[in-house]
Design goal:
Number of helices: 7
Helix content: 25-40%
Bound molecules: iron/sulfur cluster
Largest sheet: 8 strands, mixed
Strand order of the largest sheet: 2-1-3-4-5-6-7-8
Radius of gyration: 17 Å
CATH architecture: Alpha-Beta Barrel
CATH topology: TIM Barrel
CATH superfamily: Aldolase class I
Number of strands: 8
Number of domains: 1
CATH class: Alpha Beta
Structural class: alpha/beta
Distance between the termini: 17 Å
Length: about 220
């Protein structure tokens, strides 16, 4: 499933292929670009082989090309959607150049298209450089999973392949992204963290000058 909407229903029906989504006016359209992810979060359904095979967001036929995504998008009027969101069963920033190409192409037809990228915030470690300037004029919102109030807990939860330095890196990413993206949000999941820890996350976001969103549990988490 490459383009999808979310229904809010529990279980398998949470994600709905765009072709089965009916009237998409006012809805968010999600773009699922990759299965790759530098994390291995303990709470992620990717961790079970069965879920990987059964889940409709697992790209069984490999990653879609830019052309394939654009062709699928061309079947819909993006003027009527709320937001185009890059988010799937992997980390969309693993394909940042392709994400940029898709946004640039769509903006030619839809200059007012609102774009959000849901991410782990590890892109600068993935590429070994600061890629946030490339977000300018492309992303309206960047949503970064903060997940935890400190580096140790973050690493225990995400098992990031970049190790313990990942937490500082995602905070820095959010801080740097602020220069180029109007709305930078960090998120934690509701119900899995104590009020005290959420408050600590709020303080971190305040220091970084970004907003904290406490969001409902869902997969993908980003
Ligand atoms: S929850 Fe998101 S960041 Fe974590 S392993 Fe799953 S896809 Fe990757």
């Amino acid at each position: 499933m490459i383009l999808y909407t979310v229904t809010g229903k529990a279980g398998d029906e949470y994600f709905l292929d765009i072709s089965k989504s009916g009237d998409i006016s006012g809805k968010n359209m999600y773009v699922n670009m990759t299965n790759r992810c530098p994390c291995s979060c303990v709470f992620c359904l990717r961790q079970t082989k069965k879920m990987m095979e059964d889940n409709s967001l697992w790209l069984k036929d490999g990653e879609p090309s830019v052309e394939e995504v654009l062709k699928l998008c061309s079947e819909y009027d993006l003027n009527i959607i709320n937001e185009l969101v890059f988010c799937g069963f992997g980390e969309p920033m693993e394909r940042f150049d392709d994400v940029c190409r898709i946004i640039d192409a769509l903006r030619e037809d839809y200059p007012c298209l609102k774009v959000r990228i849901n991410t782990s915030g590890l892109a600068n470690l993935i590429y070994g450089k600061d890629i946030t300037p490339q977000l300018e004029g492309r992303a309206d919102t960047i949503s970064v999973s903060l997940n935890a109030p400190d580096a140790e807990e973050y690493y225990q939860l995400t098992r990031s392949s970049f190790g313990i330095k990942s937490y500082d890196a995602i905070k820095e990413f959010a801080f740097l992204a602020k220069r180029y993206v109007p709305n930078v949000v960090m998120t934690v999941v509701d119900g899995v963290m104590s009020e005290e820890k959420i408050e600590k996350c709020r303080e971190i976001c305040d220091e970084l000058g970004v907003s904290l969103r406490v969001r409902p549990f869902e997969i993908p988490q980003k």
